[in-house]
Amino acid sequence: MRFILKDYQFAASAQITSALKRATKGVLEDPEEVWAITLSAPTGAGKTVIATSVIETVFDGNDQFGPDDRATILWVTDDPALNEQTKRNMNLASSTLGPNRFETIDSGFDQPTFDPGHIYFLNIQKLARSNPLARSNTDGRTNSIWQTIANTIEINGPNFYVVIDEAHRGMKQESDRQTIISRIINGQPGINPPVPIVWGISATPERFEKAMAGRFPKSFDVPIEDVRASGLLKDKIVLDNPTGNQIGGDTTFIRAGVAQTVAFERAWESYATTQNEPPVLPVMVLQVGNTPSDAEMTEYLDAVFDSWDGLTDKNVVNTFGEHVAISAGSHTIGYRAPQDIQDDTDIRVVLCKDAISTGWDCPRAEVMVSLRTLNDYTAIAQLIGRMVRTPLARRITTDQTLNDVHCYLPSFNKDQVAAIVARFAEGKNDEPPVEIISNPVTLEHNTKLPDEVFDLLGDLPTYVVPGRVYRTQIARLHTLATLLAGDHIVEDALTQARIHPLGVLKTRRQAMEADGSFKAALDKIRALRIERSYLLLAADSMDDLPAEVQYDLDRDDNNIEDLFRVAKRKLPEGLALNYWNSIFDAHDDDYDPTEAKAETAVLALNKDVVEAVESAAEKLVQQWLKKYQPSIAKLSDVKKALYEPVKRETRTPELTELILPSSKTTADVQQMWELHVLANDEGKYPSPHKGWELRVLEREFKDDDLVAWYRNPTGTSAALRIPWRLGQLDKSMYPDFIMFHQTDEGIRPSIIDPHGQFLRDAPGKLRGLSDYAEAHGGTFARIDAVVEIDKTLVALNMKSEVVREAVRKVTDDTLDELYEKHGGDYS
């Protein structure tokens, strides 16, 4: 892959690949077996990137899975533009897939079977009965597409994977066109048999999964919270609408949209200059009604051009369904297909009617002005959903206002905007998991606070926790070494990354040779243990036959080569090959290469040896990240972002850094607070609080020594993250408040975390906070876990060893007893 996958993308890729391998094995063992594998991921999660990684791994293998030389992919959609977009995105993402492995099925396609190692793209319109593709013996055609599918299933069924993209759209059973996918999947009597293995991809897979009843199901869901934390989607959608029932405002809002787009352009230019990156050129989307008059279009375009200096007709395009240029007043606005907009930086304004769905992938679209009414609420929500991808495929950690989308809705009132906000919050349709706010306010560093507060906050110990699935530590070390060398931080990092694990292998071999285990393992690898049994066909007695015969059969070179391929997966990034070469360095030139491969396999197939190498690689990564963090911190944002996946590929929680944004957008609310580290231009922080949180804040503000405070966010690099265990998984908790007080030792931070003892995660999070306090208690004046008992706030002092010892033994049934025995009156 050319892209470094996000944690959840890597996990989903590994899970889907494993499921496909199991399905292949199942169909090989029982040809009547049929499988349905589902990938459910929210809009914006990068479903195509995940699919590309899976297909690349299936075709070519990686350090976890071997290649499948017989694998064939049929990629099915209901729209040719979607196929073209998928091919383009796959080509960008993959280092091994490309045009030579892509095949578009058109009316001229005529093959008896699909070829292994290729992805065939089919849109279901081509399978209408009137299309020559669906018929044989016409126009010189030898094979219909149905015959090709049937032949491929017969010859290569266990390795033939049919992928249904946007799977929910083809399963409605409402018309002939929409049942074509069902005919592919379930077969047709006398024409084509059922496809053994089907993989459906959708943000809303319920309809697909229902249609797959009767198949062996494997379903994989990408968690919404992981997509939110990934940085692939904008953080917030800001909705502006007129208050009350005011009339008019179309062109006023158009001018406001232009002003916001220009403001985005200036902010991106400033960011790009600071980071030495190419600037992002934001796009404004102007959504009009289905039948705007010439006079209306002229009025709209005049408002755009009059308020945007230097804009010309070539900077404005339409995506109307008529696919033709339009003329309005003195302007001629050409048509452009949605999929072509992103890469044409001359385009700055896009005119559309309904939602631009198929083929629309334009992360530069950061401002929308919709002139639609409440009746078009679905079209508006769908269009918003196409505008939430981040232009740089990562969150901007400094100026967080660049993580926003602005939408202007002149025909909507407050209640109607609330309906859109509720639709996104519920996530019941196909909306991306992005927060929507109205009445926005920009927050920046509070200039009324001492600079020391910001330094203290940035230095607080915060953690990154392991993902659900991670690469080997050997691969992690190689990636980090490549980055450090490329950024001229450690010039010989790649050499060190090669020599260090190689030394571990040599040391482990010496130990195994000393205790005789190496020779025993080598003898075992050289031979196959064979068991001979007898089946009596005549009437003679079995008494004359031995009960069992076992003997050894020397493995031939091909089977040793098979073991060496496994060794290269167990010891990736060329480590197995490097060790194999090192054997020749220690012997004469005529040393048997197959013998050297067997010796390498002995080490690679030994779990203890592999774990020793993994541990050594992990330790070196940790040392490098700690030692060279100051140098990494000086890099541009785009380069620093490349180190983040390496940090997250830990096997145990590891320390990282907290990055406070210079600015961010939030909703303006009536409840305002002083002394927050981020504030508006009046030094106030809008933040609604109630219940325990409100009482905690009121209690802290009674302290005359309070200097500042920070409402700890969730799931970003701006958060203080504390690891805790849930079963076998490491999770992150985010204590609510960090308070800064003036003490005899100067300004000191404190953690105050109100969290209900009645919640299921309470014991685990309490233990996590306790472990954190034991490791980092000296950094804080207080670390208090606060609950309410009989309407009184009670706090556990996590800096107390007695309290921490009691927390280690706590269970769900003893939480109240813990607070009653060891808690103090917080209020």
Main beta-sheet strand count, sense and barrel state: 9 strands, mixed
Question: What is the structural class?
Answer: alpha/beta
Alpha carbon gyration radius: 31 Å
Give the tally of β-strands.
Answer: 33
Query: How far do the termini sit from each other?
Result: 55 Å
**Helix segment tally:** 25
Strand content: 15-25%
**Main β-sheet, spatial strand arrangement:** 11-12-10-13-9-14-15-8-16
Which spans of ≥5 residues are poorly predicted at pLDDT below 50?
174-178
Amount of helix: 25-40%
User: What is the mean pLDDT?
Assistant: 88
Shape assignment? globular
CATH architecture of the largest domain: 3-Layer(aba) Sandwich
Q: Which CATH C-level class of the largest domain is it?
A: Alpha Beta
Give the topology, please:
Layout: H1 7-29, E1 35-40, H2 47-60, E2 72-77, H3 80-93, E3 102-104, E4 119-123, H4 145-156, E5 160-165, H5 176-186, E6 197-202, H6 206-211, E7 216-221, H7 224-230, E8 236-240, H8 250-275, E9 283-287, H9 294-307, E10 316-318, E11 326-328, E12 331-335, E13 349-352, E14 365-370, H10 377-385, E15 404-408, H11 414-426, E16 435-438, E17 440-445, H12 451-458, E18 462-464, H13 473-486, H14 493-515, H15 517-526, E19 527-532, E20 549-554, H16 557-570, H17 575-585, H18 593-604, H19 607-627, H20 629-633, H21 637-648, E21 654-656, E22 663-667, E23 672-673, E24 678-679, E25 685-686, H22 691-701, E26 706-711, E27 722-726, E28 729-733, E29 737-743, E30 746-754, H23 762-776, E31 782-789, E32 792-797, H24 801-808, H25 815-822, E33 824-825
Parallel strand pairs: 1-6, 1-7, 2-4, 2-5, 3-4, 5-6, 8-15, 8-16, 9-13, 9-14, 10-12, 10-13, 14-15, 30-31
Antiparallel strand pairs: 11-12, 17-22, 17-24, 18-21, 19-20, 23-25, 26-29, 27-28, 29-30, 31-32, 32-33
Helix pairs in contact: 1-2, 2-3, 8-9, 13-14, 13-19, 14-19, 15-18, 16-18, 17-18, 23-24
Domain Helicase/UvrB N-terminal: 4-207
Protein name: Helicase/UvrB N-terminal domain-containing protein
Organism: Nocardioides furvisabuli
